[in-house]
Amino acid sequence: MKKISNQEYKQLYEQKKPKEKIFLNCVKAFVVGGIICMIGQGINDILVKVMDISKENAASYTSIILVFIAALLTGLGVYDEIGKFAGAGSIVPITGFANSVISPAMEFKKEGMIFGTSAKIFTLAGPVIVFGLLSTWICSFIYYLYRVIAL
Amino acid sequence: MIKNGNQSFNFEKKIYIADTYSVVGPKENSGPLSSYFHKYFSDDLCGKTSYENAEQFMCTTAAEELLMKNNTIKPDIYIGGDLLNQIITTSFTARKLNVPYWGIYSACSSFGEAASVASMCVEAGMKSAVITASSHFSTAERQYRAPLELGNQRPAWAQWTVTGAGAALISDTDVNKNGVMIKGITIGKVVDLGVTDTDNMSAAMVPAAADCIVAHFEDNSIDESYYDFIITGDLTSYGGELLCSLLEQNNIKIKSKHLDCGALIFDTKNQHVYSGGSGCACFSTVFSGYFYQLLCKKAIKRVLCIPTGALLSPTSSQQGESIPGVAHAFRAEVE
Predict the structure, then answer these.
(1) b/e B285-298 (16+ beta carbons within 10 angstroms → b)
(2) Domain encompassing residue A71
(3) Burial class (CB in 10 A: 0-12, 13-18, 19+), B151
(4) Residues of B in contact with A19 (CB under 8 A)
């Protein structure tokens, strides 16, 4: 075969590659992500206004309820269908985090409770937890410096 | 065996593809080729406890049914490959078959490599060989990608691994009088043009396929007019276009003769398979189901089969390595 450089070949396949419907995908993600947040807000309002729970506690309960719903939908095999449609719209909210914990737990159940489910449960969520903790440390350190300097 | 050019070999004996057998899962069976497959399972778990077990069951079914149909033949060797680590599907199938066994691996081009090795065995004096190549969507997903229930999106150029297994009986006697022969092979080189996107397997495999086709034509001093069809494994229609334009730079025009199993097996518009099918079973089931029947009916007489493989592992791609491609060609002809 005639020699073709990696760069020339890249140009060729990028030009032939099927096109992604970026705008449509963004709209889908926006709508579904928005609906998930609306449901969360609804749950929060019910907890605060109807059940008379303090705002701080209601926020925690709302997260717990949303995580439960997402875990249940993952187990029923519905969440991945939502994800295929919505993309980032259903991955970014806390429900996506629940999905990323439950799905490997289910997937690796066949390798047993120890080496399967428990060892693999955080394979996807692990990085989220690591960077979550890391950013918390950095933010708290900045906050600490601010307190020391300002006061 | 006569060496032609640099990497092609033609056989002196008559080496027959005496029979084939294909087993597919439910999604493949609702695709456009459903009527050609020998057997399908409506449940992709096949009633087993894991998808790995299900894939083994499909592969074993394909091999056993093939041998049962041709019970006058006792194969000298079983050669096969699949996508899973340590090629467990094929080795565990061999555990059941009680036939001497060689396992091979060349990713989705395994059927091409198995057919080449098997025909060389027969040329060298063996009576017959049984070959298989299998894959399963759910076992491939967990090994190469994400858990099944993860709600992620994949790009439009990604591919859907075919669930199924294809088997063929390569023999020196044409027990079923089908007349389908393997006339020669071209052993492919590993070609890597720096594609690192693991969703873009088509682009990673196309250069290897192009290289193999160019070598095949040069070695045998023939061109595309010799063949009725040139069949690639799992490039999909996007990869097919890419292959044609890469070959055009080498003055080979195959557009009107090129077919791709990954584009044929699914209805890409309505079956939600991204750009098309992939996996060892993509070529093996489409060849042993569809094309073999066309050859038997003499609807087509000469085809060049080039299953294509992407030789990556999850480790290599996470470490930033590009994806090497490979393709092995064999000439299936009927007189």
Answers:
(1) bbbbbbbbbbbbee
(2) 21-124
(3) buried
(4) 156
Task: Measure in Å the smallest separation between the Cα of A31 and chain B Cα atoms.
Answer: 16
C-beta neighbour count of A63 within 10 angstroms: 17
User: What's B194's domain CATH number?
Assistant: 3.40.47.40
Distance between CA B212 and CA B189 in Å, rounded?
7
Q: Is B194 part of any domain? A: yes
Residues B165, B22: Cα–Cα separation, whole Å: 6
Sorted by sequence, the CB contacts under 8 Å of residue B162 that are 6+ apart come out as B24, B28, B135, B137, B234, B265, B277, B278, B279, B281, B282, B285
- Tens-digit pLDDT profile for residues B159-208: 999 999 999 999 999 999 999 999 999 999 999 999 999 999 999 999 99
How many structural domains compose chain B? Answer: 2
Do B161 and B219 fall within a single domain?
A: no
Q: Do B245 and A106 touch (CB under 8 A)?
A: no
Domain count, chain A: 1
Q: Is residue A60 part of a domain?
A: yes
**Which of B144, B171, B198 marks a domain boundary?**
B171
CB-based contact A12 B245, cutoff 8 Å: yes
> pLDDT tens digits, residue range B214-246?
999 999 999 999 999 999 999 999 999 999 999
Query: Residue B24: which domain range?
Result: 2-171
> Is the minimum CB–CB distance between B318 and chain A shorter than 8 Å?
no
Question: Is B141 in the same domain as B205?
Answer: no
pTM across the whole model: 0.94
B185, B325: one domain: yes
Q: Which of residues 256-285 of B touch A (CB under 8 A)?
A: 272, 275
Please indicate, yes or no, whether residues B113 and B204 belong to a single structural domain of this protein: no
Closest residue of chain A to B276, computed from CA coordinates? A18
pLDDT, one tens digit for every residue, chain A (151 residues): 889 999 999 999 999 999 999 999 999 999 999 999 999 999 999 999 999 999 999 999 999 999 999 999 999 999 999 999 999 999 999 999 999 999 999 999 999 999 999 999 999 999 999 999 999 999 999 999 999 998 7
Residue B120 domain-assigned (yes or no)? yes
Which ipTM value was assigned to this complex? 0.91
Q: Is residue A12 part of a domain?
A: no
